[in-house]
Design a protein that fits this description.
The protein is of the alpha/beta class. Helix 1 runs parallel beside helix 2. The model has no long low-confidence stretch (mean pLDDT 95).
Length: 657
């Protein structure tokens, strides 16, 4: 039957072993081989049971759609699943390892499922802006109902089958070998005269109609304000599952999948998903040290968050705080945060207790002994008793000559850390930073620079570009509105207020350009912390402040009206230009790192794919022309890097870098 499948028949049981190679991925060739095998075995009088399994420890799976990196352009998977479901002989799927997307859909189409205790399943489709297209939205609800289905399909996480919501997927959970489990299960099948049991005929998940509708309503409320299309289409298909016969429901799902395919949003999300996978591969290196103990210096807010994240990851934290009052407040705050997490159900009581058992705090001379790395997270802690030879990583604004670790806010739950290697850094420092990121379950963006980190570069460029547009007559509120409508959660002047205007005001501007945060600081405005910045911050949130607009108009030309799409094109272009310069300077090796960082530090919405992808989607030529046409004294900001012209010349985008 080809190299993709190996078929053996013993005592009437035909086993189709899938040979997917190192990628363990479903391909068109494998799907065609399964289809041929099912067709052949259905007509074989010497076969009464068909088994679908893997020849390796993991069942083949993956997203078969081209946007997900697959090659199933014609959705052959859907037809194969329906053929399996309609097979006149019982089909058993044996799942092992981590199974996602198409692999789970094959299992759903089978009549029976044997699943290893350690198996996890997931559907990353929504994260790629896609809808499952081989029946998941129709078969899962028949088994589980709406709530569990939506958790799996919209949540996108890889979840365990055993011991939870998804246990009903398994007709047998086994922890021995697949061969032993099959032998036992088939013996019982034959003694009970078991026949095919199409999932399409099941109604277990529809038993409580009111619960089904309530779950749909909750999910709809949760995604109603999101601009992402795929979750809404998935929800509609799951709602249709209860109302439509299977073939009509499958057609409904196929239409929903087609609506999402090849959209700019699915391209952006798919790009980001694969960029994230490439970045994540860095912390999977097999030459990284094991981190068990860290030191943290000081009791600042960032120190508290770092300590919390480390403790929740099971790391021992030796927390050195000079000031007794700060020590009392910081440790008390951390304990209170853990207690709130327990009360909210985010952390179990046992896990919180284990975390606190790993916390050792004080100001003793030997407190930092045993720490594999010490994180300087508060100013004023120099002179702390750091053992000789222990690496000290800088976690405050600014960079260190050796190693800086900049955690995406909030450090307690943010998924990314910048590992910034200074001029004195060694490869051991690189491995140490990556090892800590892995131990803390975070993505790591490794940078090599003697200057500012990448996030700081992008952040300063955002404010610099926004200030330039104000110089040219735009209102800060118009700029924020345009970027917020584009998808930026915290546009530049809102973000300046949140950061603190005194912080933003420290950065100089080109001759003839203005730092507008500095003007507001002179007027006694500090930002959100004091209730007055560019905006007025009250109990109802932020509102525009007419006095700010008046003061700005006194300092520059009257307001002009630049179209919103021109504002977004220029600001995103300036950010991408800063990213292009970072690539040229060797700060990061690929544009993918910049995209991931811009999303995971909340500068960009995920459905835009990151700043470098977004500028390509807007059009590099149009962006270049808009930047070059801008009459502003900050020429360095608005002069496109030479890579723009090179990409335009060869019809490429930053996605290829």
């Amino acid at each position: 039957m080809g190299t993709e499948t190996e078929i053996t028949v013993t005592d009437g049981v035909a086993q189709i072993a899938l040979t997917a190679g190192p990628s363990v991925r479903l391909t068109v060739a494998m799907l065609a081989a399964i289809d041929t095998a099912i067709d052949h075995l259905s007509e074989d009088d010497g076969v009464d049971i068909i088994v679908l399994r893997s020849s390796s420890p993991t069942f083949p799976s993956g997203i078969t759609a081209p946007q997900g990196g697959g090659d199933d352009r014609d959705n052959l998977l859907s037809g194969v699943c329906r053929r399996i479901e309609l097979c006149a002989k019982p089909v058993i799927a044996v799942l092992t390892g981590a199974v996602v997307g198409g692999g789970v859909e094959l299992a759903l189409a089978a009549h029976y499922r044997l699943i290893h205790q350690q198996t996890r399943i997931g559907f990353p489709n929504a994260r790629l802006g896609l809808v499952p297209s081989a029946g998941a939205t129709q078969r899962l609800p028949r088994l589980f109902g709406a709530e569990a289905t939506l958790e799996l399909l919209i949540g996108g996480a890889l979840l365990p089958v055993a011991g939870g919501t998804f246990t009903p997927l398994a007709d047998l959970l086994f922890d021995d070998t697949p061969e032993a489990a099959l032998q036992s299960f088939i013996r019982d099948m034959r003694s009970n005269g078991t026949a095919p049991r199409p999932t399409a005929d099941l109604r277990t998940g529809f038993a409580d109609a009111s619960a089904y509708q309530a779950a749909l309503k909750r999910a709809r409320e949760g995604i109603s304000t999101s601009p992402e299309l795929a979750p809404k289409k998935i929800l509609a298909a799951v709602e249709a599952a209860m109302l439509l016969p299977i073939d009509t429901g499958l057609a409904f799902e196929a239409a929903a999948a087609e609506d999402c395919a090849d959209t700019e949003q699915s391209k952006a999300l798919s790009h980001l998903f694969h960029a994230e996978q490439r970045v994540a591969a860095q912390v999977r290196r097999n030459d990284l040290p094991e981190i068990s103990t860290i030191g943290v210096l000081g009791g600042s807010a960032i120190a508290i968050q770092i300590a919390q994240a480390a403790l929740e990851a099971g790391i021992r934290v030796n927390w050195f705080i000079k000031d007794p009052a700060q020590q009392r407040d910081a440790v008390g705050h951390l304990r209170g945060t853990l207690q709130q997490a327990v009360q909210a159900g985010r952390v179990s009581k046992d896990r919180a207790q284990r975390s606190l058992q790993n916390l050792h705090h004080g100001d003793g001379p030997n407190l930092l002994d045993g720490a594999q790395v010490v994180l300087r997270a508060t100013r004023g802690q120099r002179g702390a008793p750091v053992p000789r030879g222990t690496v000290i990583a800088h976690c405050l604004p600014g960079v260190d000559a050796r190693l800086s670790l900049q955690f995406a806010a909030p450090a307690s739950s943010g998924r990314l850390v910048e590992v910034i290697l200074g001029p004195e850094a060694t490869d051991d420092d690189r491995r140490l930073g990556l090892a800590l990121a892995r131990r803390m379950n975070k993505l790591a963006i490794v940078q090599t620079t003697a200057g500012a980190g990448l996030h700081d570069r992008l952040l300063q460029t955002l404010w610099r570009a926004a200030d330039a547009l104000v110089d040219l007559g735009q209102s800060p509120f118009t700029i924020d509105a345009a970027l917020r409508d584009w998808g930026m959660v915290h546009p530049p002047f809102d973000l300046a207020d949140r950061t603190g205007l005194d912080v933003v005001a420290r950065h100089p501007r080109a001759e003839g350009a203005q730092n507008w945060s500095g003007l507001l600081v002179q007027l006694g405005r500090q930002g959100r912390a004091t209730g007055r910045g560019f905006y007025h911050h009250g109990t109802d949130g932020l509102t525009r402040d007419a006095e700010v607009q008046h003061k700005i108009n006194e300092s520059r030309a009257p307001q002009s009206n630049m179209p919103a799409d021109q504002i977004t094109r220029l600001v995103i272009g300036a950010l991408a230009n800063a990213g292009a310069k970072a690539l040229r300077d060797g700060v990061v090796p690929r544009a993918a790192e910049i995209d991931v960082l811009s999303v995971f530090t909340h500068l960009m919405p995920n459905w835009r794919g990151g700043v470098m992808h977004a500028v390509g989607a807007q059009g590099l030529l149009g962006t270049t022309r808009a930047m070059e046409a801008l009459d502003h004294p900050d020429g360095d900001l608005w002069t496109p890097d030479t890579v723009f012209a090179e990409l335009i010349k060869y019809g490429r985008s930053f996605d290829s870098l």
